[in-house]
Write a structure and sequence with these properties.
Shape: elongated
Strand order of the largest sheet: 4-5-3-6
Number of domains: 2
Radius of gyration: 28 Å
Order of helices and strands: HHHHEEHHEHEHEHE
Low-confidence stretches: none
Number of helices: 9
Distance between the termini: 67 Å
Helix content: 55-70%
Length: 234
């Protein structure tokens, strides 16, 4: 492999990794500009090492045919280790917070950049350019499209007036969990007058699956004996 070919592939790896990393950095994600560049560059270097290894093995066999059965060069082994090993970087970008998982897209972009880096190092320029364009389109333009087309949750605020304060909170939690509804926030009313009464007013902010209508939730809540009133807050 000539020096200018190595230079072209390294520069292309920096450009590709930087382009995708810039989008992640712009959105303030855990792995950004430099991380994506280094992953892509490292994968490109690994794939070129494979090519050098094959070239050296071929030259040795040509000069020493008797070693043909003893020398082997596996073009896919190092690349497979890159694809597997980059997983720990992806795992480091995934954050579990308050029941939700964040960073999966960034983890996927790091893994994809590693794969593109291997393509760069092997000299598959058409594959590199087209795959980079596809990744950039997915990251930049598909988020809005996904939010509009595949949105599957509704955020609803419900004001509930109920008695039997201690047992009712647990009962409501069981009900929401059974309906696959996530409770986002609970606002308890702190009123001196209510402290002397047998009922309590609480506002639940819930995240419900889209197929469950808000009026259905309210109707179900009103069937509880302890609940005096339940209404949706706009």
């Amino acid at each position: 492999m000539l020096a200018y070919e190595v230079a072209i592939r390294l520069v292309l790896a920096v450009i590709v990794g930087g382009l995708i990393g810039y989008e992640r950095e712009f959105k303030n994600r855990p792995a950004g500009f430099r991380t994506h560049i280094l992953v892509c560059l490292g994968a490109a270097v690994t794939s070129m090492i494979q090519l050098y290894s094959i070239q050296d093995t071929t030259n040795i066999i040509l000069h020493h045919p008797e070693l043909q059965g003893a020398l082997k060069a596996d073009i896919g082994r190092l690349g497979a280790q890159v694809i597997t090993g980059v997983g720990f970087l992806g795992a480091g970008t995934i954050i579990h917070e308050k029941g939700s998982v964040k960073g999966l897209t960034t983890a996927a972009s790091i893994w994809t950049v590693a794969c593109i880096g291997l393509a760069v190092g092997l000299g598959y320029y058409t594959l590199t350019i087209l795959s980079t364009i596809c990744v950039f389109i997915v990251l930049v333009f598909f988020k809005t499209f996904e939010a509009r087309l595949f949105k599957n949750t509704n955020i609803i605020k419900i004001e509930i007036l109920y008695g039997n304060k201690k047992n009712m909170v647990e009962k409501l939690e069981q009900y929401f969990e059974g309906m696959s509804i996530k409770v986002k926030t609970i606002d308890f009313s702190i009123d001196d007058e209510e402290e002397n009464l047998d009922y309590s007013t609480t506002i639940y902010t819930i995240v419900a699956p889209r197929h469950i209508k808000s009026n259905r939730i309210v109707q179900k809540l009103c069937t509880f004996e302890e609940i005096y009133k339940a209404n949706i807050i706009e």
